[in-house]
Design a protein that fits this description.
Number of strands: 14
Helix content: 25-40%
Strand content: 15-25%
Order of helices and strands: EEHHEEEHEHEHEEEEEEEHHH
Structural class: alpha/beta
Largest sheet: 8 strands, mixed
Radius of gyration: 18 Å
């Protein structure tokens, strides 16, 4: 059973409607949830900001910071229960037939809830969120999630897969790689990274999107099987895209996570983390890339 469904209006230039499945692998800490909602809300806010940035009127429209904090009349949408959400940008109210992005989330931790074959067949993409859990942990829900992801390219070859942080690590495991605890300790930095587990090497068939001295695989991609390895990378040709960082996080979200983890980080890493939290992270730009990969 789906956790939530929200529909956003895409820019007028979009040629097709998109359906994105989000597998919720965690619940935000109480302070983050109170201010920004759960991860369905947080990712919906991110993708709405990306849609707004890609829209012709974006230069004069402020970006939303959360569903709760921006009840502007410029946004009008409903989730599956009919509750209004401040997430739907309209730059052309005269055209009600605009294409849409439908985001449907499933709680794979507490409800062991997954999309049906019919839902997978009709969807454009699937995103696995971050989690405080370790992707290498021998827990039933993690084993089930890894197994589920491993079957998707064969059963649904046109479904695009996106992994964020924990999701990045699950994808690595699902496709023949591994996730381990990093012996070099915690890493914080660009795109609001905040992790101690990492992917030490690329799974077969994947290309790297970047690395640091602490973490050799910060992101990776795999193209559709029909695309020649030597051809230029086109967004439409990407089958799997993962990031170790958190494009969905904002400085406020990171600040609240740091407050909760200060005792784990220690004074030096806490101070470093707070400095990084204020840096420009390009999260909205990354979200727009993901949407264009899906076909926006």
């Amino acid at each position: 059973m789906a956790h939530r469904t929200t529909t956003l209006q895409l820019p007028a230039s979009s040629e097709a409607s998109l359906r994105l499945i989000v597998l919720l692998a965690d619940t935000p800490n109480p302070a983050v949830k109170a201010a920004h909602g759960d991860y369905h809300d947080i990712f919906t806010t991110l993708f709405q900001a990306a849609i707004l940035a890609a829209s012709p009127s974006s230069a004069s429209s402020p970006l939303p910071t959360s569903l709760a904090s921006d009840p502007s009349n410029a946004f009008s949408a409903c989730d599956s229960s009919g509750i209004p959400l401040a997430v739907q940008h309209r730059d052309d109210d005269s055209n009600p037939a605009r294409h849409t992005l439908t985001i449907t989330s499933y709680d794979v931790v507490n409800s062991a809830s997954y999309p049906s074959p019919a839902e997978l067949s009709s969807s454009t993409g699937l995103l696995i969120t971050g989690s405080a859990a370790s992707a290498y942990a021998d827990l039933p829900w993690i084993t089930s999630l890894t197994s589920f992801i491993s079957t998707l390219p064969t059963s649904y070859p046109l479904l695009k897969i996106v992994g964020i942080c924990f999701g990045h690590q699950i994808v690595a495991r699902a496709f023949g790689g591994e996730c381990v605890k990093n012996g070099k300790g915690w890493e914080v930095g660009t795109i609001h990274q905040m992790h101690q587990d990492h992917v030490p090497s690329l799974p077969p068939g994947f290309s790297s999107l970047g690395s640091t001295p602490i973490c050799p695989v910060h992101g990776m991609l795999r193209r559709l099987p029909s695309v020649a390895p030597s051809s230029p990378v086109e967004l439409a040709d990407i089958q799997v895209l993962t990031l170790q960082g958190h494009p969905e996080f904002t400085p406020d979200i990171v600040g609240k996570i740091i407050d909760a983890r200060e005792g784990v980080f220690g004074p030096e890493l806490t101070e470093q983390s707070r400095k990084h939290a204020e840096e420009h992270d390009e999260g909205v730009m990354i979200a727009e890339v993901i949407l264009r990969m899906l076909g926006m």
